[in-house]
Design a protein that fits this description.
By secondary structure, the protein is an alpha/beta fold. It is built from seven helices and seven strands, in the order E-H-E-H-E-H-E-H-E-H-E-H-H-E. A seven-stranded parallel sheet has the order 3-2-1-4-5-6-7, with helices on both faces. The radius of gyration is 17 Å and the shape is globular.
């Protein structure tokens, strides 16, 4: 029987690439995205057309759902939809994330701080708490998997991006504690921390620093280039697989060497 996953932030970037890799590996996937902007986030979020595009290219293997990761109701609906439509749930991937900044910590508005934290941290919590009972109920031999996308920003500090950096540090801590709670049930919880990856979020980060494009971040990485979303997605898909059974509470750096030093 095919494994079934939920991916949030799935309309574009690393989320969409993760859907592509999972489907290619035989998964059926519920793809979730908010599909509307957040006023405190200074760039356009994914659109309904982008979510529809992910669904269209995968046909019956994918079911699209508009939902906000900050909503416990929406995340519970995603879990119920996976079980009802595909018959089971084996893995969830928290890809939804936003960035805001461009000023020192003491000049960041509460609204911007709360928006960044609510999507990146609360959104990860909401997905985990919605999925955990179903993954536990599958039994300890079912290879239940939870993966969250953190960031190289969760391993270091970033100039004028205090809210984002702090939020991604929090995601790593959340993952480690959730991993301890779920390990006795045979469900693993891990995160990946991408470096500068060719996404809309990276372009938004470039504007924070007054750069002409995200391409200018390539020099930060020993690999000498930006990462492609599929490179991060491939690591996520491996963490979703039965092959990763001994990896528990880990944060995997997929950053082209950015944080090695």
């Amino acid at each position: 029987m095919s494994r079934v996953a939920i991916v949030t932030g799935a309309a574009r970037g690393i989320g969409a690439a993760t859907v592509d890799v999972l489907v290619n590996e035989g998964y059926r996937v519920v793809v979730v995205d908010r599909c509307r902007d957040i006023p405190e986030i200074p760039y356009a979020l994914a659109t309904p057309a982008e979510l529809d595009g992910v669904v269209t290219r995968h046909g019956d293997a994918v079911l699209g759902l508009v939902g906000d990761v900050r909503s416990a109701t929406d995340m519970q609906l995603a879990v119920e939809t996976a079980v009802r439509h595909f018959g089971r749930l084996d893995a969830v991937v928290a890809c939804a994330g936003v960035v805001a900044g461009g000023a020192p910590l003491w000049e960041i508005s509460d609204a911007a701080w709360d928006a960044v934290w609510s999507v990146n941290v609360l959104g990860t919590r909401r997905l985990i708490e919605a999925a955990a009972p179903t993954l536990i109920a599958n039994g300890p031999d079912a290879n239940g998997r939870i993966v969250a996308v953190a960031s190289a920003a969760g391993r270091t500090g970033l100039f004028h991006l205090a809210a984002y950096s702090a939020a991604k540090h929090a995601v790593v801590g959340l993952v480690r504690s959730a991993a301890m709670d779920l390990a006795p049930h045979g469900v693993t919880v891990n995160s990946v921390s991408p470096g500068s990856t060719r996404t809309a979020l990276l372009e938004a980060s470039a504007k924070v620093y007054g750069l002409s494009s995200g391409e200018e971040f390539a020099s930060q990485q020993p690999i000498g280039r930006l990462l492609e979303p599929i490179e991060v997605a491939s690591s996520i898909a491996w963490l979703c697989s039965p092959a990763s059974s001994a990896i528990i509470g880990a944060d995997i750096a997929v950053d082209g060497g950015m944080t090695v030093g």
